[in-house]
Amino acid sequence: MSGISHVSIGVNDVRRAKAFYDPLMKLVGLSIRQADDESVDYGNEALVFSLETPTDGRPATAGNGVHIAFAAPDRETVDAFYREALRLGGRDAGRPGLRPQYSETYYGAFVFDPDGNKIEAVTEVGENERSSEDARRDVDAQAREVLERESQPDAPLKRSD
């Protein structure tokens, strides 16, 4: 088994951090798995991202040179992540845009959270490309429509222009 199980960052005020991160994590497909006065864990089937007050009782400090990049399904989500982070009190650390120094399709945006932790939303889906998640949702919707029509044989057919 390989890969990263979880990533934790230190925060000084869990309630404030949760208010900042809740909408951002929703944008990148992570939901709350656990929350209490000392920590909040967001996750999906592959990863857990935690906000925690330091266990040693000292103030949390951001790591210089450290940032966490969250995979976004498309460029629109990267843009929304950036706008929402700034609206919630984050500070700009790099506007949304292509980063050709990483790859031709690398599109990211960087912000500092209220505790000074640097985070990023990134996609490598091109501007006119559709993410595999979008394609899967379309296929699922089409399959549901077919099943629905088949269960109602006398229903008029819909045009799909």
SSE order: EHEEEEHEEEH
Q: Main sheet? A: 4 strands, mixed
Low-confidence stretches: 157-161
Count of β-strands: 8
CA radius of gyration is 20 Å
Please state the average pLDDT score.
87
Number of helices: 3
**CATH architect. name:** Roll
β-strand amount: 25-35%
Overall tally of domains: 1
**Alpha-carbon distance between the termini?**
47 Å
Name the CATH superfamily assignment: 2,3-Dihydroxybiphenyl 1,2-Dioxygenase, domain 1
CATH topology: 2,3-Dihydroxybiphenyl 1,2-Dioxygenase, domain 1
Dominant shape: globular
- The helix content is 25-40%
Helix-and-strand structural type = alpha/beta
State the CATH class.
Answer: Alpha Beta
Question: Strands of the largest sheet, in order across it?
Answer: 1-4-3-2
Give structural notes.
This protein has 161 residues and is an alpha/beta fold. 29% of the residues lie in helices and 28% in strands. The chain has a 4-stranded mixed beta sheet with strand order 1-4-3-2, covered by helices on one side. A 4-stranded mixed beta sheet has the order 5-8-7-6, covered by helices on one side. Helix 1 (14-27) packs antiparallel against helix 2 (75-87). The longest helix has 20 residues, at 132-151. The radius of gyration is 20 Å and the shape is globular. 23% of the residues are buried.
